[in-house]
Model the fold of this input.
Amino acid sequence: MLGVAMATALGVTALAGPAAADDVVQWSSSNYLNNSQAGIALGNVAFTSASDTFAAWTLTAGVNYQPQVTRGTKGAPTTWPLDEATPTPSQTQLAMAKDGSTGFAVYKKSVGGVGKLFWSRWNGTSWSGGTELATSVNLATPPAVDIRRDGTFGVVVWKTSVNGTQAARFDGTTFTTPESLDASTTGGTLSAAVATGANRALVSWISTTAQLRSRAWTGNAWAPARDVSQNVGASTAGAGVVDLSADGTRAVAVWAMNTGAETARAAVGNGDTWATPTTLGTTVANIQDMDVALNADGSRAWAAWGYDTGAGGSVYLNRAQLESGNWSSPTLADGPKSIDTRPNPDVGISDSGLRATLAYRGKQDSANFVGYVQVLSQGAWRSGVSVGTFDGNPVSGFTRMALSPNGTLGSAVSVEQTGGQQVLARRAMTVLTAPDPPSAPVAEQLSTPFGNFVRLSWTPAEFIGNFDYPSFSVESDPPGPICTTDGSSCVVQGMTPGITYRFRAIASAYYGVSEPSPWSEPVTLPLPPGDPVSPGDTSLATPKVSKVTVKQGRAAKSMRKVRVRWTTTGPATSYQIRVSKPGGKKWKPWRTVTRPKAKLRLKRAKIYRIAVKAQTAQVTSPAKVVRFRVKR
Done:
């Protein structure tokens, strides 16, 4: 009739499915991204909004190394060699825009005995040939990269044997001239983080004095170097990693502090300054590797690190949470395992911080290695899921994981030994959950031959739960008229003229119900012509029968005259009244009167019920029912 759903239901339609909104984490079967190779050194992975997986890796064959990137799609995967094979580990790393339209990969190689850094650009369909970015590169330390979510800004940081720690910025097409950040030519881990929604970056490195230092790109310049570890309680640091909030104003760092034994430490940054470090857990013999991930607004983070108890001891994997500025005590994620197990954790976190993943290298038993992923969902970490197959080769199990912004889609890639050679095994993750809330409804008043109504329309959220398209319900304030639909608009009936309403929409799917949308702008149906009710006067605009009085008159044979009068909470245009048959069980038909009174003739000594309703042009009140016995 109006081209949209119309309803006056008084409640939300119940959907089939779980009674509670329980997330369901699904994993695809493991599949291979490339043909088996003599050797594979996995760098990192990226996951685009088209559900494409990009993996940067190095082909190792004897003494030769060749940088490669593999793209895994729903169809057959494709591999691009980025450069020629050389007798130098390339340590390939990549950074991709979320929509997969652009990105870059960097790698190191030796040219004429000189270490150099090269880069290759992804144009949306293929990779370019390698272009030299820097020379005199320290070949022992892998570069670090990151890119803004829209691909318009990125950064790479590396160490040189001549100019110390350097960085270059990516503008979506090419790199700027390298800039020196620190004179340190030696040291350990490099780390880079780019804000997902701003042209801000943070890089860190281990200095020649074994301190964790950082510099922030503020949008137009590099801020001065900061001592993140602040030399608190020790003189050396290692395994430092940093991350940034979406706007680049909040940061987090984790590292290992060495005092003969080692302690995990963390600090929170505000702008380019750092708070006093926090100790995470107790001192251990050796912290092996660390990672940290910070959510979009900087309020939540997860950190993970592997450690061992010394020669002949066991290996453990710990994790800790940052929430509202405070770190939790570490909890055990896996272990104990044999001393040859090196977890090398990779932490991912959603924009909200409510979902996270922890990918790591684990061990099934005393002989077999494999990659695992644990998933944080609804406040609890789930047991690890293996990415590849179990294998006794010590290269198996190195795993990297990439997440979608809301943490409900992702891809894990692991190195797997098979038939004496190595391949990249991938498993895709899908979280089935409640949809995100739709936009605030837009209200449009409609005048039809059937009366005045309001049509509401909204835009469904981009994320609808990774399941079938949801249905929607609308609720009102003040409570009253609602509508439900499988589309994105519906018509609301039963509104009282003169009352101001606002509405919000809720999406419902098999795996849960969304949070409500924002409220619509207020809407008020006009009053009928000549209606004295003032807009917004709720006491008068919804007339209800408040009191019914029954008086009995003279008897005439077996009948007696009965007068019925009633009062209402507001003016009505007419009234309906009906009376039951003797005994009060069955009703006679309704009849309409224009004044709040009626005369009846009823049998003496019988029990009756009388019902009265008040009416306006648009609404009829609930019936007021009274019960009485007629005198003899």
Q: What stands out?
A: The helical segments are 538-541. The radius of gyration is 35 Å. Residues 5-18+435-538 form a domain with the Immunoglobulin-like fold (CATH 2.60.40.10). The chain has a mean pLDDT of 85.
